[in-house]
């Protein structure tokens, strides 16, 4: 079953095409890694999926339902549009490179904010959910800590728990381990692997080629705003007929 379907997504900034006619279909439980050079449009694609950016053109379907988005002249969602977008966005979780936790809130407050404010979950229920999720990410003892008291790896695991609290249909990761000290990368990757194995539908922008190769069902290579190659990990990592992909893989010594 298709969870997320993108058709003909285009996005320009200042007259420059950043996403060019992107088609992508993500099935339930699928883990798709997106790789590609810096500046190829990977973050913009995730931001368009989450409607943090409004695509100039194209269609987005979530669980079979067409998402209606509407931008004003400045490219911002109109109030009318934003109201309609809120329930959609709550189904599309996002994990950022720099965690983006609310620094003045505790771990618990970070996690229950979305469920109580957006999903109107009663507070007691949200607290219970937060406790379960903290247990799942191995940080039950940090419930009353502030983000600044946690390591980068712990903050990212909290950010993942916060995203999971919205019970998303699909979870987007934008270089979730890139800002971490090397010795902290493993704990976040381990959690991402657990989620993948638990059947979570995930789109993962990553430079972790081992993760892309071993964990994902499909790898998508983007370059200059377009999908150049998409296929099973072995089809992408051992592909020889795409010069731009070959030179990217050579540059990062992936294989
Ligand atoms: P990647 O994540 O693959 O490194 P990005 O999607 O971040 O690439 O960026 C692709 C291109 O789009 C870059 O040239 C970047 O400067 C440009 N870009 C991204 N967001 C904006 C924005 N809000 N305004 C102007 N240019 C942008
Ligand atoms: Mg990026």
Summarize the SSE layout with pairings.
Elements: E1 2-13, E2 16-27, E3 31-35, H1 42-49, E4 57-62, E5 65-66, H2 79-90, E6 92-95, H3 107-117, H4 123-136, H5 152-164, E7 170-174, H6 182-197, E8 202-205, H7 209-215, E9 218-223, E10 226-231, H8 233-237, H9 243-252
Parallel strand pairs: 3-8, 3-9, 6-7, 7-8
Antiparallel strand pairs: 1-2, 1-4, 4-5, 9-10
The structure holds adenosine-5'-diphosphate and magnesium ion.
Adenosine-5'-diphosphate binds at residues 13, 18, 36, 38-44.
Strand content: 15-25%
Low-confidence stretches: none
Judged by helices, strands and strand pairing, the structural class is alpha/beta
Task: Give the biggest beta sheet.
Answer: 6 strands, mixed
Helical fraction equals 25-40%
Terminal CA distance reads 32 Å
Description:
The model has no long low-confidence stretch (mean pLDDT 94). The strands form 2 sheets. The protein has a 6-stranded mixed sheet, with helices on both faces. Strands 2-1-4-5 form a 4-stranded antiparallel sheet, with helices on one face. The longest helix is centred in the last third of the chain and has 16 residues, at 182-197. Strand 4 (57-62) and strand 5 form a beta hairpin. The protein has helices at 42-49, 79-90, 107-117, 123-136, 152-164, 182-197, 209-215, 233-237, 243-252, and strands spanning 2-13, 16-27, 31-35, 57-62, 65-66, 92-95, 170-174, 202-205, 218-223, 226-231. The chain contains 9 helices and 10 strands. It is α/β, with parallel strands linked by helices and 255 residues long. It is globular, with a radius of gyration of 18 Å. Residues 13, 18, 36, 38-44 line the site of adenosine-5'-diphosphate (ADP).
């Amino acid at each position: 079953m298709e969870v997320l379907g993108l058709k003909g997504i285009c996005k320009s900034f200042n007259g420059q095409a950043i996403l060019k006619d992107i088609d992508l279909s993500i099935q339930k439980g699928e883990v798709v890694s997106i790789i590609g050079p810096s500046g190829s449009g990977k973050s913009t694609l995730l931001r368009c999926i989450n409607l943090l950016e409004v695509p100039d053109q194209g269609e987005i379907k979530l669980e079979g339902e067409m998402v209606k988005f509407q931008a004003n002249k400045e490219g911002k969602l109109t109030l009318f549009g934003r109201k309609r977008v809120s329930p959609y966005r709550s189904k599309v979780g996002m994990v950022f490179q720099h965690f983006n936790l609310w620094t003045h809130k505790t771990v618990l407050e970070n996690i229950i904010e979305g469920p109580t404010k957006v999903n109107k979950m009663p507070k007691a229920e949200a607290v219970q959910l937060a406790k379960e999720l903290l247990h799942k990410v191995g940080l039950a003892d940090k419930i009353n800590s502030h983000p600044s008291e946690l390591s980068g790896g712990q903050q990212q695991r909290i950010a993942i728990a916060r995203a999971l609290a919205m019970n998303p249909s699909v979870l987007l990761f934008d270089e979730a381990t890139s800002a971490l000290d090397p010795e902290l990368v493993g704990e976040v990757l381990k959690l991402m692997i657990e989620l993948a194995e638990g059947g979570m539908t995930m789109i993962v922008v990553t430079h972790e080629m081992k993760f892309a190769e071993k964990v994902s069902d499909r790898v998508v290579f983007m370059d200059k705003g377009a999908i150049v190659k998409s296929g099973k990990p072995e089809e992408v990592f051992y592909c020889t007929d795409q010069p731009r992909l070959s030179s990217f893989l050579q540059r990062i010594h992936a294989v």
